[in-house]
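Hi there,

I know you've been waiting on this one. I reran it after we fixed the sequence typo, so this is the corrected version. Both the input and the resulting structure follow.
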Amino acid sequence: MIPSALMALSLLACDPELEPYEPHEWPAVTPGAPMAGAAEGTLDLPIGSPMGGYSSRCGYLGSASKQDKRDSAYTVNWDESTGAQTRPSIKAVWLHNGDDHLVLVKIDVIYTYDGAVEELALRLGEAVGEDLRGKVVIAANHSHASFSNFSDQVHFYLGGDRYNEEIFQSFIDQAAEVALEAHAALEPAAIGASWTRDWDPDDRVYRDRRGDNDDMVLWEDQADYVGGKDPFVHTLRIDGVDGDPIAALFTFGMHGTTLSDDSSMISSDAPGHLELGVQEQFDEPVVIMHLQGAAGDASPAGRDDDYARLESIGEYAAPALKAIWDTTPTSAEPLAMETASRHIPESLEEVRVTRDGTVDWYYPPYDEDYVADDQLYDQDGSLLSPFDEFAAPNGAAFCGSDEPLIPAGGIGTEKFPYSTCMDVELVSRVLLGVFDLEESDIPLPMPSSLRAGTTASRIGPLLTRGVDGSESATDLLVGFFPAEPTSMFVEQWRRRAGAELGYEMPLLVGYAQDHEGYFLIPEDWMLGGYEPNINLWGPLQAEHVMEGVLTYSEEILGTDVHEPEDPFGFWAPTDYPERDMPTAAPDTTPTAGTVLTEAPDYFWLPLEWTRDVDDDEPREGNLVLETPDTIPRVQGTVQLAWEGGDPGVDFPRVVLEREEGGGWAEVTTRSGRSVTDTLPDILLAHTPFPLYPHEDDQTHYWWAGWQSVAHTVDRAGLPAGTYRLKASGQRYTGVASGASETWPWSTEPYEVTGESFEIVPAAVSVEAGEGGFHAWIQAPADGWRLVDMEGDSRGANPLRGELTVTWYSGDAASGTEVIEATVDGGRSWLAITPPPEATSVSVADGYGNTGELAL
């Protein structure tokens, strides 16, 4: 069979109306020794920017996370973010074998889009002097608590507010910086892979969230998991040839929805905290990257509440994934690499599914007078074609829901799941008013909906441990898809790429390169139900895109030469309009760097400290700006507040320091990372005064809170010593002569240092019971850190390890016993009987946390 790209070249020579193509000898795909580099950073966009994912944060749809009356220069019709629980991360892995490149950039945001991918590829290519178009992947972790308005896909403004050019440019700059750090770190590498099934059998890390397809049987040999969560995790292990780890990539699906729509705090959410947990399994900084698989129908699990629940996901996942990494083989042998990218055309006329010739599913041409027959299934239960119920020339959204998100107008049928489809043309009328758009801003069909950005990469032979534990050298095919893949869609990819292209266990990475909503195979889409159908081109769109990826995986990656992937521009990216850079300058804040000793009249604080929108009175007992001399482990909180810079230039870095050798040093985690507001240890919040309007001069108050819990190891055993919080940031200096009148703004640094304090042992609660004693550490009512995996972030937490029980008779110790306690309802149970002469007892753990009880 002549591949279609080659056939197009031959036909071109015979068509005088087409520009001649000069044939040449294409270079061979040449295996080479693998090289790899990795780097990590944070995405620091302005606090006040919108957070994507929950449409209920849109002012038009309820403002679910609105905290007070503030507004922001970075929102149009969306709730403002107010602080950060963790900074979103940027992770980059650069692979090279002397013949081809693959650049993976994972960013903790709701989704990405093809405009960002194209711009990043150009920036990186210019920096390293090579053409990297089609070789760069941006994947999102799908946090519903992260920045969003870097995307100019108009039909997803309802998922993250109107596009902002300043946000986009800053987004690309920061992604490019981390990727180039990875390139600079390139070194000879040993790489290997593994597949593991049922690594989370008890649903402690992630679980099925879509029950609508649980009873659906599509394949005769259908595995027991299909219809539930995808139980597979793929691991890519990358070491230096000296054996030192460089990076570990884990791919499985898990939504980033632990924090609900009422939260206004920026966070990497569940996928980010999984990475935070795994990275502390190492004694040195190793780049840990979680890539999304079948996350469309998988929710995060965990235990405890709020931010502690996020940490628990990392605690559950870390030992299991580290054990998988330990058994993943690597090899430094030469391997072949080839990566290609195409934008798959999609419209009512172009969407079609053939399943390698076994079906012919399509939509009929649009006819405004046609009446659908509302017949969906044949007598044998198979789907009927053409799918005439999807009569939507510009696409339709929200099909299969209980009720439409925006009741703007349907597509002419009351047959489920088409009955709740909203015609895109009618929805676009709503977008005009909600996001202050002009008619020209929304051409129909929307250009960003007509092309789906995709990438495929072949790497191999790669030493791989299979599901059965056997090792073999095999090629890995990776498809990077622009949507929220569901478990059946991922299974269909594995089956079809295996049967049609011969790959064993091909990998699918979702939320990459672009965004098209949810991707379900047609049979699953037709079931409707829980949040499956945000895509615009109906039941056939997802598998139509899959067939496009399969086609060029065969045409380009299935040969031994580097063919041009798109010689005629047929699969070119979406052409987005140029947007103006905002000109609203940040506030000059000449008093930035001033520590607050008294609370302002209004000061916003996170968690349950947050007041109602209309409550302008500060709550008592929460804002304690005076630093105590001593802070008990677990039970203490230190707060630092200061005047800082405008969020347009300031995202303060807050770090925990400890006095060492007469000076101050940043406290580090087991893996060697500093304890900052990048981690869940330190919360950061911002309050402008006055709250509005943002166009007026405002004072910008910043707040940081730290709870006295160690990062992940020995959480109740933070070392005793003298500590302090320190914050550093930037203030706007104004438009000086020759300075830019738009972003990036001219700035200068400032710094604030909190008062020092001593960490002392926690107070242990002891209570007598029948046949023994309970002992526990009571967490504070306003705590947010995970203290123990069997405890409560705002309640009782057991003591760990050997406990020392000391009996007293009067003031004198009369005896000591060392025992290993059990855990009962979040408390330690000591099955021990006091001696007759004992008048009191003390219980201490190995860290010196101690409590007493009079008998």
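Quick highlight: The CA atoms of residues 4 and 555 lie 7 Å apart.

Best,
R. S.
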